[in-house]
Amino acid sequence: MDLIPTVALLIHPLLASGLVVWVWWQYAWRKKSYVLKGEERAMHLARHQTNGERLLWATGGVILVAFMARGFTGWYEHGDPWSAMIPQSLHGFMGPVGFGLMVFMTRLGKRARDQREAGESFTAAKLKHGRAADLIIYMVFIHAFLGFIYTFDVLV
User: Fold this and answer.
1) How many domains does the chain have?
2) At what angle are helices 90-117 and 123-155 packed, to 10 degrees?
3) pLDDT tops 90 at residue 146
């Protein structure tokens, strides 16, 4: 593979590496939430909510970069950007599916927040939000591992 498409394809894993760290840091809230109390907990909860929404947008951006890199590679090698846009591996299919799960998880988090602020019971929404986070964290590491293996395919 030429240098230009290789560099274009490697932008995604570089951005995604930072995203994996951010996802793990965001997921650490589950353990931290049991320890914190009072005003400090409220401050960390507000930060968790803000970062969750930012993380969703950043994830969408990283996925968009991956599709743009694939399109650029298709254009560079075949003259047609659409020739490489369809995911051709489990890694490629997991990105959009994982993003859909993140949208779902974010909505559950917002529902829990809204119910808590309205004085309603938010236990079910909070539990579902946490379970979705558990599933996503597993998927993130599987996705990252597959991406790591796929990187060797790009480089070779």
Assistant:
1) 1
2) 160
3) yes
